[in-house]
Amino acid sequence: MRITTHHPELTESGLVRCEDGGLRPPWAAVSDELRHYYDTEWGAPVTDEAHIFERICLEGFQSGLSWQTILAKRPLLRKLFHGFDPDEVAKFTEADIERLMQVSGMIRNRRKIAAVIANAKATIELRKSGGLSHLVWSFRPTHHERPTTVAGIASTSPESTALAKELKRHGFQFVGPTTVYATMQAIGLVDDRVVGAAPLVRYGEHMSEKTAVVTGGSSGIGEAAARALAADGWHVIVAARRLENLQRIAKEIGGTAIRLDVTDDDSVAEFAAQVSRCDLLVNNAGGAKGLDPIAEADVADWQWMYDTNVMGTMRVTKALLPRLTEAHGHVVNIGSIAGLRSYRGGAGYNAAKHGVHSLSHVMRMEFVDAGVRVTEINPGRVQTDFSLVRFKGDAERANAVYDGHQNLVADDIAETIRWVAGLPSHVNIDQVVVTPQEQVIW
């Protein structure tokens, strides 16, 4: 680590003018490594479980030490703790603690090492109730003023005190209010970058990659799309209500899992607050319930279909539109041939998907001046868990939809999404209809 020899100029705000002319707090002006960390990582929104877990543990290790020390040891710590993978760390035993205590360069504090293991187990347990990311980000303050001086930077807050208490309740260790507030600063829950300081150059390690958000990403077309886009080099944020599935998928593709209920305004707002970049939004969340004639229509089923397919698409698109506009991004709405052709018993789903069809058309007209592309993809018969949801778990009825027929699979639609997303920015595919060869809809 190279320590700077530049004679610092301290400003009235308490910031230091560094060799490159940028203003930074004194702690970030000590070395090139700290300056780079401050410019590219500190305060960047972090939403995935593994990185939040890592940050909590690193802050615990810092207790009584400098961040410069922790930053220098971070590569070693990542190696020893398997990249801070909670599933791997939770398997550590007393023998592993003894082994780590003997490693050269290790922070040889038995309690801190044991805390990492305890925190891994607590992180896994939290998956049953929303997950670590959901818990931590639920304590984001509703209003936070950026400090105007270094002296004005807080060391605790009511939110950090409350979050520390909640983390301890779940079994986390080395998570006092001050340590937790430092974590909140580092992962972007609070913006304590002093007004006038050098800005954040990039948001997190994935910001050099284009970022795609896929709703309904825990299974079916959403999961297949996430995998296809990741294979194409996108950093994919998979979003859905089933967090356990999301975390598995995100881990396998190197993406980020964030819980999202597209029918809930608060959930959408909380989700959007965690997304700092969005180049591609795949509105895939949706579905059908029932196949009843209008005379026997279930109002609750109709309401769910409208809320999920139409309102969900509107909510998420509206919430992420600023990020999409910044990136001159692309919205891909997954519609259905049900939005183009009606059929007996399908009135509720037909109406919802006709709504998505119209919504896509209006988005195309309204977003053109912002440089945001809009594509509507309308699949035909695709064999996924769609019919199982539609018939509320009745596998026999669901299988009958596909038995004896040629069907598409989720990967077919994912390939279509991958294709339209990979086209040059001047090319807009307005609408795609994808059906099995034997299914004729016109």
Would you kindly provide a written description of the structure presented here, covering whatever features stand out?
- The longest helix has 29 residues, at 299-327.
- Helix 2 packs across helix 3.
- The N and C termini lie far apart (67 Å).
- The protein is built from 17 helices and 10 strands.
- Helix 10 (220-231) links the parallel strand 4 and strand 5.
- The strands form 2 sheets. It has a 7-stranded parallel sheet, sandwiched between helices. Strands 1-2-3 form a 3-stranded antiparallel sheet, with no helix packed on it.
- It has 2 domains: 9-186, Endonuclease III, domain 1, CATH 1.10.340.30; 211-434, Rossmann fold (3-Layer(aba) Sandwich), CATH 3.40.50.720.
- It is of the alpha/beta class.
- Helices cover 45% and strands 9% of the residues.
Structure summarized in a few sentences:
With 442 residues, this protein is α/β, with parallel strands linked by helices. The chain has 17 helices and 10 strands.
What is the CATH H-level superfamily of the largest domain?
NAD(P)-binding Rossmann-like Domain
Largest sheet: 7 strands, parallel
- Tell me how many strands there are: 10
How many separate structural domains? Answer: 2
Give the SSE map:
Elements: E1 9-10, E2 16-17, E3 23-24, H1 32-40, H2 49-62, H3 67-80, H4 86-89, H5 94-101, H6 110-126, H7 132-137, H8 158-169, H9 177-186, E4 211-215, H10 220-231, E5 235-240, H11 243-253, E6 256-259, H12 265-273, E7 280-283, H13 299-327, E8 330-334, H14 347-367, E9 373-379, H15 386-390, H16 395-402, H17 410-421, E10 431-434
Helix pairs in contact: 2-3, 2-6, 2-9, 8-9, 10-17, 12-13, 13-14
EC number: 3.2.2.20
InterPro entries: Adenine_glyco, DNA_glycosylase, NAD(P)-bd_dom_sf, Sc_DH/Rdtase_CS, SDR_fam
Keywords: Glycosidase, Hydrolase, Oxidoreductase
